[in-house]
Every structure is written in C-alpha cells, then in structure tokens.
Amino acid sequence: MDRVRLAIVGCGNICQLNAPGYLAHPGCAVVALCDTKWARAELRARQWGITPRIYKDYAELLADPTVDAVELLTPTYLHADQIIAALAAGKHVSCQKPIAVSVAEADRIVEAVANARTMFRVTENFLYYPPIVKAKELLDAGAIGEPSLVRIHTTRAKDIVGATLTMDPDALVWRRDPGRNPGGALYDDGVHKYATAMYWIGEIGEISAIVGGGTDFLQETPSVAHFRFKDRNCLGIIDYTYAPEMSIRSRYYKADEF
Question: From residue 191, how far is each of 50, 161, 228, 242 by CA, in Å?
Fold first, then answer.
C-alpha cells in the first residue's frame, strides 16, 4: 500500500484541525468525505482543493472498497457503533476523543478491536505537542527525580481572543443533552489531561471526582478529579475553574487553555 486511502467522517468545524495533517502527508490520500449534510462535505472539499467521493450514508461509505481507513470526527454518542461497524468492514479506524459515552460502550469497542485485523486508535493530539513530549523525555531521564504529584489545571474563560475558528452553535446542542453527552469539562476535555498524565507517569489505579454545579452542563466548574497511579508512589490532580471576566488567547479554536 503506497498511500492510505482515507475517508473523513464528520465535516464539522473540528475537521479543519484534523484534516490538514492528512492532506499534507505523502502517505495519505483523502478519497472520501461523509456527513449528514451534503453541502457541508462539499464545502470542505472546495476548501481543501480535493475531489473526493461524498457520502451521506455511513454504511455506503463502509461498503466502498477503495477506502482503507476512516477518521471519525462525529458526536461521541455515535462512536461505538461507528467504530465497530468500520472494523467489521475491514477498515482501519482513527476516532476523535472521547472514545465512548459509557464503560459498557468502551468494553464493546475493546472487544471489537481485539477481534479485528485492522488498526484502531484514539486521536489524542496532546501527546504530540512538543512541550508535553519534552516533559516526557525529561521525566524518563530522571531530570526531576521521582515524581510524586502531577497536577494539570485548566481555566475556562468566557472570552477567547485570536481564535481562527468559531464554534458552530449546532455543535453545542447534543453536547448539552445529558442523554447523548454524559459529562462536561472533566469528561469531554478532561480526556486530554488524563491521557497526558498517563503518558507521563503510567496507568491510573484509583480515581474519584468532585463536580461543582454551574449553570451550564458543558462548563461543569469548579470540578476536580484526583487519582493514584498504579505501581507508583505518585498522585494526580486534574482540576477546572471558570473565570468569566478573564480573556484567553487561542491560535485556533474557541476552547480553554491550560
């Protein structure tokens, strides 16, 4: 296989951050786009200067023998069924975080991956961020000695300046629906922080959380998760707060910084 023939599934705003790497990589060709809104997929094709096949039906996409892999950039509550179907169709799968909306769904995915002949990964961009990679190198080299505590603090702000992408209001509808999205900051964004902590130190053993109130399901602040790493004398804390009168700069997306 000279190049992986990729289909991007879900052409909402977040694809504008995921697609450029694929489009620029010599080992990849974006051959198909899939979205429930045909016009949105066409818009992305024009934006990226490509002529892919466009699908509205995910099952039809999976039946396309010229597609080797799918990048799932869809709402979380769709992930489990989409991942399992793609693996069953013999496609490689890369999926946007979080992997699922429940442990039961995650277990179904794990079973499907174990029985598949193709590859699966969760798209975790934080683990490629140079400062995080450098911190890992220093930790592994013993530069700071044996770590005993990892704390990752995130401040969420109402005003984000400098962002080049804006949030589509439709993207917030399912996120604010507890039936389709079971958690706010500690779940939807916290997954990046858990992944970072585990990348630095190792697997997590015990974990518990305290979640504050707030008027917005997505905001979910103040909140904190505290945990103990397996086989290490090291604890972890991931916490969120909200600063409504503070402005935060972001180069790409109207999201929090930490």
Answer: 32, 24, 16, 18
